[in-house]
Amino acid sequence: MNKTYKTIYSAVVIVLAIVAAVGMGAIVLVAIGVDVSETYRVILTEPLKDMFGITEILVRTVPLILIGLGIAISFRSGILNIGAEGQMQIGIVASAAVALAFPDMPKWLLLPLVLLTGAAGGALWGGVAGYLKAKLGVNEILSTVMLNYIAAQIYGFLLRGPMIDPAELQTGSGTPQSMRLPKTAWIDRIIPGTRLHWGIAIALVLAVLVYILLWRTTWGFKMRAAGAEPKAARYAGIKVESCLAAAMILAGAFAGLAGAVEVTGVHRRAIEGISSGYGFSGIVVALFGGLHPAGIVPSAFFFGLLLIGADMTQRALSVPANMVLVLQGAVILSIVSAKTWLNDPYARDRAVRFMTRLFGRKRAPESGGGRRGRIAR
Amino acid sequence: MSIPTESITELRAEGITKRFPGITACDGISLRVGRGEVLALVGENGAGKTTLMNILMGLYQPDEGKLFINGKPVRFRSPNDAYAAGIGMVHQHFMLVPNMTVAENVALGSKDLRKAFRLDMEEARRRIRDVSERYSLPVQSDAYIWQLSVGEQQRVELVKTLCFGARFLILDEPTSALTPQETDELIALLSRMAGDMSIIFISHKLAEVKALSDKITVLRHGKVVFNGDTADHSPADLAALMTGHEVVLPHNECAEGCGEVLLSVKGLKVRSDRGHLALDGADLEVRAGEILGLAGVSGNGQRELADALAGLRKPESGSIRLGGKELAGHSPREIIGAGMGYIPEDRNTEGIVPSMSVKENLTLKDFASKEFAAGPFLKLKKAERNAVDLKERYDIRCPSISTAAGSLSGGNIQKVILARELARAPKVLVAVYPTRGLDMGAEEFIHKRLLDLRREGVAVLLISEELDELMNLSDRIAVIFKGKVLKTMPAREATRRHLGILMAGIREEEDVREQDL
Q1: Whether the Cβ atoms of residue A303 and residue A57 lie closer than 8 Å to each other
Q2: Fewest Cβ atoms closer than 10 Å to its Cβ: which of A355, B3, B73, B238?
């Protein structure tokens, strides 16, 4: 009986969180004077109505999964990596540069090389923050945010200067973008006529590998222990600093790879703005997915849906696509609050007692599972 | 809040019940304290003492039951209500701001001294003077908290509570951080104050309960199991009432161990976090099959010694040898590999990873060993079997081995740590304050295991402040003061008085004077 009530409690909290998120979005929608229910209907259902919408969602899902996985590794290891955006940008320019440098290489060699270079670029960028944290104790939130700025400047400089497409200079339009990558560096499309590419397979395989890494290997054990309680990890002989650095390098590699996959799979040239906030949305995706690959994959799909839906509402109802940022914010706030309620055994117990009183029936004596005052956070 | 004059002649609680998830913390508790009485409230961890006091202080609302002061029903919605009624509490962990002065700390907590943009320091000093004269509690109003010793801070807490107008004191394990001398002083002080006010005194230490209290209430699993006059009952009776069974804390009754020296520390110098030499040439030897007790007031280099032994702090100079192998400055991994077992001081953050499961915590040191891993892959089944086995052998009470270790009680967390360390069959075990804050049942368990280890020929270094623990378990006792080992003596020859004096840093008995630590 009690178990049922506890499930009801959790369900109610989750429903309330969703209602709260939707409600916060609705306030903004009302304020800009549009039809609330119609907007939500378009955002949540319109993209799913045809092949185009679904493939476009999946195209957005790929970088979100990859970045989310990297974020999960770093957050689980106790590092709050806010730098995925910069790491992704470095990954984009690094992979594009290698692809453009070796146009004659066979595809079986060039494409993997390009992807690995992207990952390496991101790893380097993440590694800087990791090294600073491990050696000098520099706060990783500060360093990654600052490295984002630097990466953005490098990215802009390269695409406007050394890497700019010569054609842009000839025509004088000067759009900051690189030359088109050689075909040997392209990730193939899965369905012709859509932009859906095999990067989705890479993302799904890596999701499984990240699960294995974190929960099935000694490295994952070390990283999780170091992240959850560095002091105890040190006493147990784990080199916490190496774990931090490794986690940051891996997280950077995933963001860099996301950039490489995006550039070789979707745009096929480095263009200013193609990281388009994936680095930040990836954090939301990872948190919404419970920092677990099995949660991150659906969560990435959901946020992909929001992104496409927001585009569609802009066209259909002229609601600004930036609305999706408001929704993201609302979702974060409600997740965080809902988690607090879900993890608060006191609140749950009170609610269960309340329900018991409401719905009659004698309360069965509880088996003493939890212990007062010593509840894990 | 000026000091109210109406005194509390009686505080009565009737049928107090408070439920928490999965547990009824207080189950129909009734108690009564009259004027000038000292009531000792004893019970194991989790018996409901602290919850009950939090209800008296208005921090929690009872689910059922009522409180009466002088026969009139009262209801405290917040600690402010309780203070207004004249009830004051001194918490186990001091609630003082270290970088403020005594007077500032007092003013901070007194609403009427908080003016628009400043604190009324003159009035705060006047109140402190009044209180300290009235109860002969010497404190310096303008000393900073961080400059004071633990005993002095305890006094400040008392003065602060009294300045808030308390006429009824609740003390939650007030002696847990004090030296034996400071404890005696506090007990004497409280007995003097008891003439003037009522006191509820929470403690694990039955000797103090005997010395101070008139009446005693024993709680077990949230219920009152005993109510009576302290004078009529021996500590052993009370211990049995607390735990529900006869408690016999084991003694080390064997002849002194005389095995080979397994752990030897010579001229060890280690710096503290603040940079000074906290360990200044310490020498120790622990033999196989021996428990060496290291007595000392905490903060005299024990932490630095323990850290150096675990490999977490690099010594400036000196040597640490384990079975002939030099380990000073080696990494924790190497030291663990050499056969060092370790029970850290802070079990919740150093001994376990709280958010990881009991199962994972039991392999925290060995997850990468051949037994629990094949190459980089964890053998999860092995870890599971290991956990089931250790849970059984060490009587770890947890809902399942997948429960987060941090959600267990202190005693069970300590059992997890002990199980992990002993399962590794160490040659040397360093136990740092292993029973601090544990109830008698858990203490008994830990003590028995330590003596078992001794019998098996392990060299045990027991770092503790509890003189009873040290004298019961050790073969020899060393006393540490300001980073040096002052003296090592056979436990048989050690007396409480002698140890207390050495712990205060006085080598010769003749020098004993009233000393402030």
Answers
A1: no
A2: B73
Give yes or no for residue A377 having a pLDDT over 50.
no
Q: Which residues of chain A neighbour B50 with C-beta distances below 8 Å?
A: 373
Same domain (yes/no): A88, A128: yes
Distance CA A234, CA B350 (A): 8
Interface of B with A in 343-372 (CB under 8 A): 344, 346, 349-356, 360, 364-365, 367-368
Mean pLDDT check: name the lowest of A200-209, B237-246, B413-422.
B237-246
The total number of structural domains in chain A stands at 2
Q: Cα distance from B394 to chain A (closest Cα, Å)? A: 19
User: Which residue among A224, A235, A372 sits closest to B23, beta carbon to beta carbon?
Assistant: A372
Record: contact B20-A374, CB cut-off 8 A = no
Pick B46's closest partner by Cβ from A233, A346, A371: A371
User: Hey, what are B269's tokens?
Assistant: 């110098």
Identify whether residues A10 and A144 lie together within a single domain: no
Three-class DSSP category at B112: helix
User: Whole-number mean pLDDT of chain B?
Assistant: 85
Q: Do A112 and A189 fall within a single domain?
A: yes
Report pLDDT digits (tens) over A186-230.
Answer: 999 999 889 999 999 999 999 999 999 999 999 999 999 999 999
Q: Tell me, what's the pLDDT at B510?
A: 45
The answer to whether position A126 is within a domain reads: yes
By residue count, chain B amounts to: 517
Q: Is B111 exposed, middle or buried (0-12, 13-18, 19+ CB in 10 A)?
A: exposed
ipTM above 0.85, yes or no: no
Work out the burial of residue A22: count CB atoms within 10 Å of its CB; fewer than 13 is exposed, 13-18 middle, 19 or more buried. middle
- Residue at A37 is within a domain: no
pTM: 0.79
A231 touches chain B (CB under 8 A): yes
Say which range, A285-289, A363-367, B95-99, B371-375, has the weakest mean pLDDT: A363-367
Give the integer Cα–Cα distance in Å for A230 and B416.
18
Q: Is A368 on the interface with B (CB under 8 A)?
A: yes
Question: Are A121 and A266 in the same domain?
Answer: yes
User: In order of start, what are the domains of chain B with their CATH numbers?
Assistant: 10-243 (3.40.50.300), 261-511 (3.40.50.300)
* Chain B contact present for A221, CB below 8 A: yes
Would you call B438 an interface residue with chain A, using a CB distance cutoff of 8 Å? no
Q: Is A364 on the interface with B (CB under 8 A)?
A: no
Q: Which among B20, B350, B380 has the least Cβ separation from residue A349? A: B20
The partner residue sitting opposite A225, judged by closest CB among B46, B364, B399, is: B364
Same domain, residue pair A204 and A93:
yes
Question: What percent of chain A has pLDDT above 70?
Answer: 93
Residue A159, pLDDT score: 92
Q: Which domain holds residue A26?
A: 1-32+321-361
CB neighbour class for A275 (10 Å; exposed up to 12, middle 13-18, buried from 19)? buried
CATH number at residue A215: 1.10.3470
Q: Which residues of B touch A354 (CB under 8 A)?
A: none
